[in-house]
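thought: fold this chain, then report.
action: predict
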Amino acid sequence: MADTLSLYTQLRERARRIASRFPAVDFYRDEAGAVDVSRRIFETDPLVVRLRQRVVDRLEDDFGHGMLHATKVALDAGALTHIEGRAAGYMGDYLARRVSIAQVAGLLHDIQRKQRNHAEQGASFAGGLLAEYPLEAAEIEDICIAIRNHEAFKTTVGIDTREGALVSDCLYDADKFRWGPDNFTDTLWAMVAFRRPTLRDFVRHYPAGMESLARIRSTFRTPTGRAYGPRFIDAGIAIGEELYRVICTEFSTHLG
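observation:
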């Protein structure tokens, strides 16, 4: 087992070196203003700060969907909400509040990740938890429906309001941004460390995983997500394809 973990450590480092050659997706450059606003709210909004302290010990990084993942999703969901909210006419304190609502959804979206039907379970858990927070019932409903709707290739729950739909769509897109380079620098290896497959089994499932990445490309929901999401996915696919070649050549002796 130690040899297997050592092998995956080596592969993780190779994957990170491959990924380092790719420039960051230009979302972070083009939308730097919204990214900065989201980070400022994430670091200072009392609601978000309090929730971060609550969930940090509950989210388990050993499954690849822990605090690092939740933070990235929350930040990007907030940035997307700022962009799309401004386009919808949101302004001032209301816009900032909707950014914080999206960030709460981002922090909680994988809170039940190890459970069967984790999106449904997570939405239910979030509804109970958020009753303790200074949120309106409609805000809690928006967050819970967004969590319920964040999985790919699943039927979504209908949403009655434009505000609620925006939270749901921004959370989905921010979560699927992570299917790009992040998948090969962090998420994949945390999941491998949890499941501990043999390299042979890992490689056997690799093509199906790559096919799922390609399918995600056309599922982004917001205008901004549709503009930048495929670029995240294309970068992830390029990294994944190069890593696969490395595994099949340089690590071929471990596949017998």
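thought: worth noting. The CA atoms of residues 55 and 107 lie 8 Å apart.
final: tokens above.
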